[in-house]
Automatic annotation (TrEMBL):
Keywords assigned: Signal
Keyword DNA repair: no
Coiled coil: none
Cited InterPro entries: IalB_sf, Invasion_prot_B
Highest taxon in the source lineage: Bacteria
Lineage: Bacteria, Pseudomonadati, Pseudomonadota, Alphaproteobacteria, Rhodobacterales
Signal peptide (UniProt feature, chain positions): 1-23
Taxonomic source organism: Sediminimonas qiaohouensis
Name of the protein described by the UniProt record: Invasion associated locus B family protein
Amino acid sequence: MISRIAGGLAGVAMAFVASGALAQEESDNQVAAKTDWSVFEDSDPKECWAVSSPKKTVNTRDGRVVSVRRGEILLMAFYRPEADVTGQVTFTGGYPFDEGSTVNLDVDGTDFDLFTEGEWAWPASSDDDAKIIAAMKAGTKATLTAMSSRGTKTEDEFSLLGFTAALEEAEKRCQ
């Protein structure tokens, strides 16, 4: 996992902080909308991504629902040809994850673990990315469960309606 991060993923994740999240707010580089997913494209460096926000969010502490302030919550899959990144699944929960924790991604009953660093989570390998993307293409709902560094358990539910079309659009734009 560490070599994968060192290989550029951390830099790509930081680019999303600057471009993906901001772009979704401003929509100046949104190139398509596919049901519950949007497609964005940047040119320097060339990168394209499909992104969605949760339809439902529940935050709990000690088993009780609590109100918390979180930044943007985004699930995305991106392409960055210059770095040989194809179909990288990434999640940001809008807060720093508990150090050393994993995020559980449940796609219609199939579970995957995402490793965390700061506010970002992603699969351990490109093979895991491919398995997750296949499940998301076939699925209807993705639920991500994580623990914040402050001890809040979060559960974010994403619709997968439009995911396949958005992913294919992002891939086509970054070939």
